[in-house]
Amino acid sequence: MDSSEIYHVKQQFILGAYKSLVALTLPDPNSPDYTPTLLYQARAHIALNDPDSALRLIPAGSDNVAVKATASLAKYVAASGSASKDAQEASLEELRDLAVEIEGDDAEGSDSDKALVRVLAGTAFTRAGEIEEALETLGVDTEDLEAVALIVQIYLSINRPDLAKKQFERSKRWAEDDLLLQLIESTIGLVTGKDGYSNTSSFYTEQLGNPSLTSPHILTARGVTRILRNEIPEAKSDLEESLEQQKGDAETLAALVVAAGLGALKKAETEELWTRFVSEHPDHPLVLDVAAKESLFDECVAKYEVPALAA
């Protein structure tokens, strides 16, 4: 059973309180909490798109498979930022080798460490667009709840909420009613709109009421939920507060752009926000989608011939 300290660290990671997590002081290296805390902190740095800090945190020469997998994921994310295909592939190969290694009896690490290797490898494969490899590595019949959470995210990303729901229903049979299980249910609800997003909204509001938690991620999630519930002023408030805590976050800015277009900001302010968003995040899916639609519109206009005016 996890200590109370590890439970708190895990809670912060699950709910996206990454900045608070990386600010924690690591336990003594001889403490049983040292390696789990180290891994959560390193993964939080990766989630904040700061893989270099994760690599500086990870001790060199560790034989623990989870530590090695975390380093490989950090190297993959770092290489993605530099567009180095060879370095990316080398990191993916390291994760493939570790996924094979944990099937043996001599792998250094506990069962939870080995389960984490699958999650980290699956995360990298998903980011690389290798969806089938990610699902195979994670194992769709897994009884590791973090793996289930990632599988659900994958299914939702490829527009298969039916399969995501099956994973959730399956996991309820063996998983405890824990925070991650509630988060999985809320994520599915956010995508499917079940019960008018009421359960999802209640979950995010409950977590934001925790005085020991500061999570711009949950604020953004509630802001998106409020957009979908047509609570535009409330959504604007959540999203602006999230940006105060994590300036320039792409997903929060994207959501605020949507809220602005639905009346949260005046027209001039909305246009200014859109210009800023395009400038700071030119490769964001929202920017690319709008650009594609603009191009399609221009093509249609070019094919349309204006009839001559009647004499």
UniProtKB/TrEMBL annotation:
Its main location: membrane. It comes from the Eukaryota. It holds the Pfam family Coatomer_E. One of its GO terms (molecular function) is structural molecule activity. Keywords: Cytoplasm, Cytoplasmic vesicle, ER-Golgi transport, Golgi apparatus, Membrane, Protein transport, Transport. Belongs to the COPE family. It is found in: Cytoplasmic vesicle, COPI-coated vesicle membrane; Golgi apparatus membrane. One of its GO terms (cellular component) is COPI vesicle coat. The keyword Nucleotide-binding does not apply. The keyword Membrane applies. This is Coatomer subunit epsilon. The coatomer is a cytosolic protein complex that binds to dilysine motifs and reversibly associates with Golgi non-clathrin-coated vesicles, which further mediate biosynthetic protein transport from the ER, via the Golgi up to the trans Golgi network. The coatomer complex is required for budding from Golgi membranes, and is essential for the retrograde Golgi-to-ER transport of dilysine-tagged proteins. One of its GO terms (biological process) is intra-Golgi vesicle-mediated transport. It is a peripheral membrane protein.
